[in-house]
Specification:
Blueprint: H1 2-74, H2 82-102, E1 106-110, E2 131-147, E3 159-165, E4 168-178, E5 181-187, E6 192-197, E7 201-203, H3 208-211, H4 213-217, E8 222-227, E9 234-242, E10 247-256, E11 259-263, E12 268-272, E13 275-281
Antiparallel strand pairs: 1-11, 2-7, 2-8, 2-9, 3-4, 3-8, 4-5, 5-6, 9-10, 10-13, 11-12
Helix pairs in contact: 1-2
Keywords: Membrane, Transmembrane, Transmembrane helix
């Protein structure tokens, strides 16, 4: 009788052990399956995000180039042709819509009228005031500024454009409105070089004697920077060579701020794009 009880106890213990082992195996299998599902879901999600980022970055780039090309085409006759400009952008929108549709995106962009740019980084009045236009410059052949006197601040809110390197300021010009008259003070960083009064058009490299830009910068590695860009509107042109021998050019006569929208089954993306015209050419 005692042996039967011991045998029954052993059988029950074995059943409990087998049941525990089965539960343990089940938990391990379930955990592995859940991990695989989560991993696959994350990979799919990241793939979708990366694809979307690529597509919007591509759209920003080609839209910027389309505006620059439209402006270039509109100026072929020597003066701005708005009809050519608008037609070029309409053709671009139609072609871009078809191309992005292949990738599963609906593409649309809202054109924006040209306006006078500020000297901020993006050309808008609320853009970054202090920024670098170009770095590693060796020679500047063209440096022209045309300031809108009605937007120019006073001496406490001046516009400053400077050529600098590791040693400090090589050359600078500070512009401000003095009782309705434009005042331009030129400096080498430590002392005054001269001043110009009353002129909204300043040909820095064209008037060598007045501005002395070349004598303070030629043969040096420098950058051209803006300080207080939101204090004035106007256009400017810079052109020359970098220290590696490449040509550079930055010209801003107008600013446009179009909106592009892209959406797919999963998401929608909208971006506004401040674009300088005629733009930057490296």
């Amino acid at each position: 009788m005692e042996r039967e009880r011991i045998k029954e106890f052993d059988d029950n213990a074995q059943l409990l052990l087998l049941a525990g082992f089965a539960v343990g195996v089940g938990i391990v299998v379930l955990t592995i399956m859940l991990n695989n599902v989560i991993y696959a879901s994350n990979i799919a999600s990241e793939s979708s995000i990366d694809t979307s980022r690529y597509e919007i970055a591509n759209a920003i780039q080609i839209t910027t180039e389309a505006y620059e090309d439209a402006y270039k085409a509109s100026m072929e006759s020597g003066s701005f042709d708005n009809t050519t400009y608008e037609q070029h952008l309409k053709v671009y929108e139609d072609m871009a819509s078809k191309n992005f549709a292949i990738s599963g995106f609906t593409f649309y962009f809202e054109n924006n009228t040209r306006s006078e740019p500020y000297y901020t980084q993006n050309g808008l009045s609320d853009g970054r005031d202090n920024w670098t236009i170009v770095s590693n410059v060796n020679i500047t052949d063209i440096f022209v500024i045309e300031v809108n006197s009605t937007t120019l601040g006073d001496s406490s809110d001046s516009l400053l454009i400077a050529a600098t390197n590791n040693s400090g300021t090589l050359w600078s010009i500070e512009l401000y409105n003095s009782s309705g008259t434009i005042q331009a003070n030129i400096s080498d960083g430590t002392s005054s070089i001269g001043s110009v009064t009353g002129s909204s058009y300043l040909n820095i490299t064209g008037d060598i004697a007045t501005y002395q830009f070349q004598s303070h910068t030629d043969g040096k590695d420098y950058s051209i920077n803006v300080r207080g860009g939101g204090n004035s509107a106007g256009d400017f042109t810079l052109q020359g060579k970098l220290t590696n021998g490449d040509d550079y050019r930055f010209a801003r006569y107008w600013i446009v701020n179009p909106t592009i929208t892209m959406h797919s089954y999963e998401m929608e993306m909208t971006r506004t794009l401040p674009i300088s015209l005629p733009g930057r050419v490296a």
